Sequence to fold (386 residues):
Amino acid sequence: MSASFVLQNVRAVLKDGLLPNASIWVENGYIRRIFQAEETLPQPLCALPHTDGQNALALAGFIDVHIHGFAGFGPEQATAQALWEMSARLAREGVCAFCPTLYCAKPQEMEQLLRTLAPALGKETGAKILGFHLEGPFISPAKPGVMKPQDIAPADINVFKRLYDAAEGKIAAMTLAPELAGIGPVIEFCLERGILPQAGHTNATYNEFLTGAARGVTHATHLFNAMSPFTHRAPNAAGAVLLHPKISCEIIADGVHVHPDVVSFLKRVKPIENIVLVTDALKPTGQTEGPFIANGEEVIFDGGVWKRKADGVIAGSALTMARGVKNLVDFGYTLDEAAACASANPARLMKRPQTGRLAEGFTADIVLLDGNFKPVKTFIQGREVK
Fold:
């Protein structure tokens, strides 16, 4: 499919609702105009290639800012090819951009991994890699989740500078615990270089979290998971996110990491633009044959999530972005709200102002979903993914 074409007969999910029987004019990789059903296409468009969307839902391409791997590929394999395969396979699932997420590891190990992987970025042919998301090593030993406690490191700006240099500056986001001693210079370094500092794997008190927010940590990693919980006497980290509308957050909408009714409750207290759907998916997600390995440990699929085989601890999600959108709708979000959580909101978070919406002038990143929310076609910058 050319980067200039007309996509006809789709139900376009726009910022303010659904436009049935729509046509989308794509020109040189950008959305030139979206036509309503009753409009007649201008004569010059008749000469362009046309594709029939077969009444599929058309959404802006998904952006997953927290994902460890997919279809048996991920950054933990320490090869450029693994990242490129992850990019290609995610694109077939409607993901047009993502942040490959590194597990917490010993700083020197993360440094070596970044040095190995950094040259691969920019050479992917599927979903665009926005930069690495580092989930550690400056996290709370009290909230490791599935991270290995021995890999957690005290906050140290010199350590982070070495990680930044090893990544050739290609770090998009960093999960950290805002209450740690010495974290201030790390936060400042992130903000100065356009890296998103996000609070996660944190045991912060309510006041400690708000101190971090005042420093610039205004986004939370996988809300409710691996953070100090909200209680009526101690709101803690989760309470700070709930009580302060301007603090944005990730949500893993698989119905297991967070109860569906809590996911529904979230949009009652949080502006929809500050809710970001993520998968936090592990490398074996979408993999058809085992053994299933994530972060060097065998995992099993049980109860809708990946669990560490050794002890049954939840190791991560098996969610896809398309399934996450469907779940949000099932949990009470409108279709345009769910689409925003998967596209426009992460685009804004990553400072990609012309991405993440079906609107004139925006990049033609488009996913078509069938009636079961299964991706049937993906276009990245107007080019169909094969």
About this structure: Residues 5-60+358-384 form a domain with the Urease, subunit C; domain 1 fold (CATH 2.30.40.10).
